[in-house]
Each structure stands twice: as C-alpha cells, then as structure tokens.
Amino acid sequence: MTRVLVVDDEPQIVRALVINLKARTYEVDAAHDGATALRLAAARHPDVVVLDLGLPDMDGVEVIRGLRGWTRVPILVLSARHTSDEKVEALDAGADDYVTKPFGMDELLARLRAAVRRAEPAGDGLKDVIVDTGDFTVDLGAKKVNRGGKDVRLTPTEWHLLEVLVRNGGRLVGQKQLLQEVWGPSYGTETNYLRVYMAQLRRKLEADPSHPKHLVTEPGMGCRFEK
Questions:
Q1: Considering just the CA atoms, what is the radius of gyration of the chain in Å?
Q2: What are 164-207's pLDDT values in tens digits?
C-alpha cells in the first residue's frame, strides 16, 4: 500500500486530501509544519510527499532540501506561488512536480500516481543493460549511475529523464515527448522543468557541466544523450 505524507498548514486542504487519498486506499500521514514533516518522513518512510511551500515554521524549499539530504522519495509541491522563479526554485531544490492552488483533485491524484510510478523498479526488459560513457556508467536495470567509482544519488525524476535519454541514445528527443514521458501526458509546454533537470543532471554527471559532452540540449527542440 502506498504511503503519502501530506504537509500543509491549511486544515481544510489536509482534510480534503486525507479523505480522497484514503478513499483510494492510500495510507496517509499529515504534518502542519516543516519540522513535523521532516520527523514523520524519517519515522514513516513515505512513498511520496505532497508539500505546501508556505509553512509556518520554515519555507517548504527548506523541507525539500532536508529530505533530499537522505531520500529520493518523490516530492509533489502544492502551492499558491505561481511565478516561474518560485517553481524553478522548488524544482531546483529537488521537487519532482509542482501544482498550483487552487487545484483539481483529479489532476493532483493523477500527478501523484505518475510521481509514484517514476520511483518504481525497472521492468525485466531493462535488466543487464549498462551504458558506459567513459565518464560515468548507467545501469538501467538497477537504476544506478556510477561516476568515478561512486554511486551518484539521483531523484526519481532525474533518473527517469536520464533513462529516457539513454534509451534513445544518439537521437534527439523532442521537448514535448520528454515532458510527457517523464511527467505525464498532460505536460508539453513546461520547458522550465527540462531546463532545471538537465542542469541538475549535468552538475552530477558531466566533467564540465557548462560544456556537456553527454547530456546535450538543442535549444527550442529537445535533448540528446551522447556516449
């Protein structure tokens, strides 16, 4: 059973989420501030976190960074902040998706399901598929990346984006296709997601992130993985 941690200081939103999630057989924990959220995450190990950014004791971005210090759990931001810069800040800290308030419950649940799917183990068809670039290796079956003899910690969304590119090695994957494969069919114009996540992957994997050899972006078109 999938366990969800809901973090929001608005009681009516927490209540609505708990009712809807439990009705769909999710297990739910709730926190009304950041400190409680971090404690519950460590104690309960949720499968996905739904997080408001406007918390009473700390900014939600701090919670994201706190979680990313030790876990790859999918994080779905739920916030009234609408500006592109605020979305990019949350994504850059390690969030996997961003939903603005007011929101539709069906859309939120669809995005939550997509976030959970991205964190699931790879299918049998990807076993024993290992790609070596010379700078790092990608093990598609184990969902692992190794650089310099050490495993590189990727979030589920970072991994899924890398996986799509590696599986299409050498071919340009269009922006819309990438967005829909990684985040879901309702996406297609959120190019800031790609910009943020490609930059994160380059920082973690490229020898010179400002001049990438393997994770290449064709402006306005898409991205490509080169060995």
A1: 18
A2: 999 999 999 999 999 988 888 888 899 999 999 999 999 999 99
> Could you tell me which of 64, 112, 54, 108 has the C-alpha nearest to residue 90?
64
Q: What is the pTM of this model?
A: 0.77
Of 198, 207, 188, nearest to 225 by C-alpha is: 198
Q: Please work out, in degrees rounded to the nearest 5, the angle formed at the alpha carbon of residue 191 by the alpha carbons of 187 and 196.
A: 115
What would the two tokens of residue 139 be? Answer: 């093990």
Q: Of all helices (H) and strands (E), which one includes residue 40?
A: helix 34-44
Helices 84-93, 191-205: crossing angle, 10 deg rounding? 30
Domains of the chain (ranges, CATH numbers): 3-118 (3.40.50.2300), 124-225 (1.10.10.10)
Distance between CA atoms of 2 and 74, rounded to whole angstroms?
A: 12
- As to burial, measured by CB atoms within 10 angstroms (0-12 exposed, 13-18 middle, 19+ buried), residue 100 is middle
Task: Tell me the residue ranges of DSSP E strands in the chain.
Answer: 3-7, 27-31, 48-51, 75-79, 97-100, 130-132, 137-139, 144-147, 150-151, 173-174, 215-218, 222-225
